[in-house]
């Protein structure tokens, strides 16, 4: 015999034969051929150095050695079964890590955790930057995650817009009061500096446009920069937001604008106006850990829950949007290269 698994199989044959008092019935009980069971018994007898069964009688009888070893053999099998049960329980209770974008609403993340509990799964939600979510899927530290893709390629989409300081009685710097200037979706060309009487007809400085880490993925950043250039915005207007708290403080103080999703802006008391160019919005897919045999299946309930946590909706193409009146064709062409 070689290995513990062989020993367990041989002990199972031995105990089954004692219980059934028949080689044929024991073989049927274990679902194996009788010659195989007989060979296992003989191998076990050779290992222990004595006969376990008296084969001289018409009915199988257990020898004194066989009776002596029986409780020990049964104990080994019982322990092996309990070990298997413990392993199965541990697998079922294991926390499955899922990756989501940073700054999701706590109530939405709680919904993800509750959904897992309802389906008998313990979920651990991790707010991570886009690249770390991809890396987590590759190294197996994440079970599944929301992965950034181009909005026209993703199953889900999050509309982006511009957050700015809320209107007040005091004069707010130009570009920081979209509810007054932008009654509908804003186009990037609307951010171009305007001439002001207070400055003798000179153009006022445009407010910086800050972007969060979630939107610093290369293709999204490149699209935004190209669209800004085609819209005539000053070079260097688009900047990394750095820490979100600092970016929000700058935005609420009227010193900048922030590219973000509506729930994030509203949650912190900022005014928000949607961005007209849909090619600059966020696109997402829910992906599972990649195994040797392909991508792990992600249940539909978890896909919907993760998308909801990010405020994403199903990306259903609307043919009416193509060439629709008022669409910023220049920005759209710039974004798509």
In total, how many beta strands?
15
Output mean pLDDT: 83
Rg estimate, integer Å: 34 Å
Distance between the termini: 68 Å
Count of DSSP-assigned helices: 12
Series of secondary-structure elements, N-terminal to C-terminal:
HHHEEHEHEHEEEHEHEHEHEEEEHEH
Q: What distinguishing features does this structure have?
A:
17% strand, disordered C terminus, 5-stranded mixed sheet, alpha/beta, rod-shaped, single chain, 337 residues
What does this structure look like?
The protein is built from 12 helices and 15 strands. The protein has a 6-stranded mixed sheet with strand order 4-3-5-12-6-15, with helices on both faces. The chain starts with a helix and ends with a helix. With 337 residues, the chain is α/β, with parallel strands linked by helices. The longest helix has 30 residues.
């Amino acid at each position: 015999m070689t290995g513990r698994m062989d020993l367990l199989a041989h002990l199972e044959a031995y105990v089954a034969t004692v219980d059934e008092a028949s080689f044929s019935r024991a073989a049927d009980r274990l679902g194996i051929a009788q010659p195989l069971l007989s060979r296992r018994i003989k191998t076990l007898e050779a290992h222990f150095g004595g006969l376990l069964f008296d084969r001289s009688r018409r009915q199988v009888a257990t020898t004194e050695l066989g009776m002596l070893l029986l409780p020990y053999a049964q104990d080994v099998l019982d322990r092996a079964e309990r070990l298997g049960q413990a392993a199965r329980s541990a697998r079922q209770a294991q926390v499955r890590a899922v990756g989501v974008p940073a700054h999701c609403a706590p109530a939405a993340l709680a919904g993800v955790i509750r959904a897992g509990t309802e389906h008998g799964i313990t979920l651990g939600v991790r707010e991570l930057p886009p690249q770390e979510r991809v890396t987590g899927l590759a190294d197996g530290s994440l079970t599944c995650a929301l992965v950034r893709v181009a909005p026209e390629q993703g199953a889900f989409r999050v509309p982006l817009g511009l957050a700015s300081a809320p209107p007040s009685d005091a004069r707010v710097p130009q570009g920081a009061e979209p509810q007054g200037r932008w009654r509908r979706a804003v186009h990037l060309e609307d951010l171009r500096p305007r001439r002001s009487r207070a400055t003798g007809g000179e153009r006022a400085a445009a407010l910086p446009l800050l972007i969060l880490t979630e939107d610093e993925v290369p293709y999204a950043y490149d699209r935004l920069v190209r669209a800004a250039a085609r819209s005539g915005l000053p070079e260097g207007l688009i900047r990394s937001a750095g820490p979100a708290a600092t970016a929000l403080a700058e935005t609420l103080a009227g010193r900048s604008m922030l590219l973000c999703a509506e729930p994030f802006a509203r949650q912190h008391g900022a005014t928000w106006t949607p961005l007209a160019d849909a090619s600059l919005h966020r696109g997402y897919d829910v992906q599972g850990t990649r195994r040797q045999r392909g991508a792990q299946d992600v249940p539909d309930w978890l896909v919907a829950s993760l998308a909801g946590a990010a405020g994403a909706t199903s990306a259903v193409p609307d043919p009416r949007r193509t060439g629709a009146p008022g669409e910023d064709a220049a920005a759209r062409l710039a974004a798509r290269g």
